[in-house]
Design a protein that fits this description.
The protein is of the alpha/beta class and about 375 residues long. About 40% of the residues lie in helices and about 15% in strands. The strands form three sheets. A seven-stranded mixed β-sheet has the order 4-10-9-8-7-5-6, with helices on both faces. A four-stranded mixed β-sheet has the order 1-2-3-12. The radius of gyration is 21 Å and the shape is globular.
């Protein structure tokens, strides 16, 4: 085995070394991690559905019916009635002809991009898209062009150099580390020709923004104009997995060509059944979304009074940019000592010099939780 110690020592020396916390009990604002009771502000369980009893009951009943595992890939004999029904219901939710389930959001992006473009084509991506979209572009063999974050003029310049082949524009809907929303209405305009298409990975938007949680494009009034919608089920939906939604031709092409769909075991059917229950709750969760917005406003108002500079985000993702990885890590540790769990996000997850505390909110939080967080942040500052 080749030596790895130098790399590990370098990560530690630069305060980029990652460690895992062992958490007990259900997902929720209050968790016991590494033996200590913590108030958590770092989960993606935005609607508080991960511990929803109705989902657990659906999974229990489905386990009795289907067993624990799916047994095979979708194209062998792992595609159950539960999977099929969920795909149909997700397609209806986002107003598309069809939807296709993937085991993870990472696999959904890898499979979709590499199935649609190749060596003579272009992937044109916002500079801050999720790592899975960058890896997907590289795997496809297409020429990868990246433009400055949410900068339409920079996008136009990139498009001007991509004069041959297909052009796939890719962006997050809600950006996972900044919490802002992509200018989707403008992006749609550049994807309205025969050689271009727009893919929106709305992992952090579905369930949270838009009418009945239909996502970022719905909120911005261009929902019907996005060619390819990608969403995950392990965030606001509270379960696990991912889906791609679009035209019948798109989904059939992915069934034939997306390697991360063809060559992997299907989700357990019980997870699909639990997600069917979750989808119903998401559609009816305007009260949870309203509560979430109220918590976000309370935090932003309090942080502003404390003199803290926040990004322009109206979503549950509220990053507090610190700068250096060392400072972000130390502040995260100070919060942990006070019983607040907020992860320090460091390069390469975010650009050099923009290490941050990624503060996220759930509808399960209370006003008192937000006030407690603000009080501890004031002490740390």
């Amino acid at each position: 085995m080749f030596p790895l110690q130098d790399f590990l020592k370098q990560q530690q020396a630069q305060d980029l070394y990652r460690t895992r916390k062992v958490c007990e009990g259900q997902q929720g604002p209050r968790q016991r991690c590494d033996g200590k009771d913590m108030l958590s502000f770092c989960s993606n369980d935005y609607l508080g559905l991960a511990a929803e009893p109705a989902l657990a009951e659906s999974m229990r009943k489905a386990t009795e019916k289907y067993g624990v595992g799916s047994g095979a890939a979708h194209l062998v004999n792992g595609h159950s009635q539960a999977h099929h029904a969920l795909e149909e219901e997700l397609a209806a939710f986002v107003g598309r002809e069809r939807a296709l389930l993937f085991s993870t959001g990472y696999m959904a992006n890898l499979g979709t991009v590499s199935a649609l473009v190749g060596r003579n084509d272009y992937v044109i991506a916002d500079k801050l898209v999720h790592a899975s979209l960058i890896d997907a572009a590289k795997l496809s063999g297409a020429k990868l062009q990246r433009y400055q974050h949410c900068d339409i003029d920079a996008l136009e310049q990139r498009l001007a150099t991509a004069d041959k082949g297909k052009r796939l524009l890719v962006t997050d809907g809600v950006f996972s580390m900044d919490g802002d929303i992509a200018p989707l209405a403008e992006l749609v305009k550049y994807a309205r020709d025969d050689s271009s298409a727009l893919l929106v990975d709305d992992a952090h938007g579905f369930g949270v923004v838009g009418r009945h949680g239909r996502g970022s494009a719905d909120q911005l009034g261009c929902h019907d104009d996005v060619d390819i919608l990608v969403g995950t089920l392990g965030k606001a939906f509270g379960t696990f997995g991912a889906f791609v939604a679009g035209s019948d031709e798109l989904i059939e092409t992915l069934v034939q060509k997306a390697r991360s769909y063809i060559y992997t075991t299907a989700l357990p059917p019980a997870v699909a059944e639990a997600t069917r229950t979750s989808l119903k709750l998401v559609e009816q969760a305007d009260d949870r979304r309203d509560k979430l917005q109220q918590l976000i406003k309370r935090f932003r108002h309090g942080a502003t009074q404390l003199g803290m500079t926040l990004s322009d985000s109206q979503t549950p993702i509220q990053p507090l940019v610190i700068g250096s990885a060392t400072q972000a890590l130390r502040m995260s540790e100070q919060l942990a000592q006070a019983g607040i769990l907020v992860t320090a996000i460091r390069p390469p997850t975010v650009p050099e010099g923009s290490a941050r505390l990624r503060i996220t909110f759930s509808a399960s939080h209370t006003d008192q939780d937000v006030d407690q967080l603000l009080g501890v942040l004031e002490q740390c500052a």
